[in-house]
Specification:
It is a single chain. The protein is α/β, with parallel strands linked by helices and 311 residues long. It has two domains: 221 residues, Rossmann fold (3-Layer(aba) Sandwich), CATH 3.40.50; 63 residues, Alpha-Beta Plaits (2-Layer Sandwich). Helix content is 37%, strand content 25%. The strands form three sheets. The chain has a six-stranded mixed beta sheet with strand order 5-6-7-3-8-9, with helices on both faces. The protein has a four-stranded antiparallel beta sheet with strand order 11-12-10-13. The protein has a three-stranded antiparallel beta sheet with strand order 2-1-4. Strand 6, helix 7 and strand 7 form a beta-alpha-beta unit.
Length: 311
């Protein structure tokens, strides 16, 4: 559904290029998001998350490489099929009312049954009590719920969210999670792309997590959608076997306190069996393999420690 192929994005004009002051926001990013997938974009500020989103929406064009959505250039796809979108900063005309804003968005999206849709989404996001309130008088939480309501007005195949739960209290964070699950369940081919710093929420919502660092894809992680990333503790025999672990389990994290022990990731028992078989076929010797926890938050911290190296 979504393909990014060796995408680079630079900012700065010809003069900046001559002065070698151009900012490289993305560098060689490749990503495939199949239909029916929810993918989370995580990483530190400046990693390139918002740039990826702007490329998907057609707001920006890549400096190098290619971006496709549904087999089309992003802007062409948006104009033909539309994309549901919530930006990281919700900015609306301050004199609009809540109901008026949703009616305007419904008209722009050419929603047929717009009156019914507007009332349905206002009820879903519990906005009826502030229906006549102007945007400038809304709390941050209500403004965020209004933005989410407009994203749900039209039936779209693709939804792109940038920090969708920013400003929401824990109860509404959980409610939004349920709403997004229902949106996906209504059409198994729908694709959800969202950027967030809330790693716990990303782990609950996403099927896969793309970790960006300095404009590059640092790692792509599979999640269980409702729990921690499946991980195992693997202990092998000897230095040669330890050298082979990375071949079978990319991203294996060496553990302290035991020689040749690693935390490894695998999507299922079948997957871990296949990877162990690969290790054995290459000549590795396995001493022990035990299931172990490891949340996305822990994994993310471990990747940061591995990137920095030993103290």
């Amino acid at each position: 559904m979504i393909h990014l192929t060796d995408v680079g994005k630079d900012f700065g004009g010809p003069l900046a290029r001559l002065r070698r002051e151009r900012v490289r926001a993305l560098d060689g990013v490749s990503l495939h998001v199949p239909a029916g997938t929810a993918v989370g974009l995580v990483g530190p500020n400046g990693a390139g998350k918002s740039t990826v989103i702007k490329l998907l929406l057609g707001y920006l064009h890549p400096s190098r490489g290619g971006v496709e959505v549904g087999g089309m250039l992003p802007r062409d796809y948006v104009e033909r099929h539309g994309v549901s979108y919530v930006p990281d900063r919700v900015t609306l005309p301050p004199w609009w009312t809540v109901r008026g804003a949703l009616r305007t968005f419904a008209a722009l999206a050419e929603v047929d049954d717009w009156e019914e849709r507007v009332e349905r989404e206002m009820a879903r996001m519990e906005l009826n009590e502030v229906a006549h309130r102007r945007v400038r008088a809304l709390s941050k939480g209500n403004l965020q719920r209004l933005a989410l309501a407009q994203a749900l007005l039209a039936d779209r195949k693709v939804m792109v969210l940038d920090e969708p739960t920013d400003g929401l209290d824990p109860e509404w964070v959980a409610r939004v999670r349920e709403v997004l699950a229902g949106w996906r369940a209504a059409d198994p081919e729908r694709v959800l792309v969202f950027a967030s710093h809330d790693l716990d929420e990303v782990e609950r919502v996403a099927d896969q997590v793309v970790v960006l660092r300095a404009g590059r894809v640092h790692e792509v992680l599979a999640t269980a959608g409702e729990g921690p990333v499946p991980s195992w503790t693997l202990v092998v025999e000897g230095t040669e076997s330890a050298r082979l672990v990375e071949k079978a389990f990319p991203g294996a994290l060496p553990l302290t306190g035991e020689a040749h022990a690693f935390r490894v990731e695998a999507g299922s028992a079948r997957d871990v069996s296949r990877r162990v078989q690969t290790l054995l076929e290459r000549g590795g010797v396995v001493r022990a393999l035990t299931p172990g926890g490891g949340s996305l938050r822990e994994r993310y911290r471990a990747m940061g420690a591995r990137r920095r190296g030993p103290a």
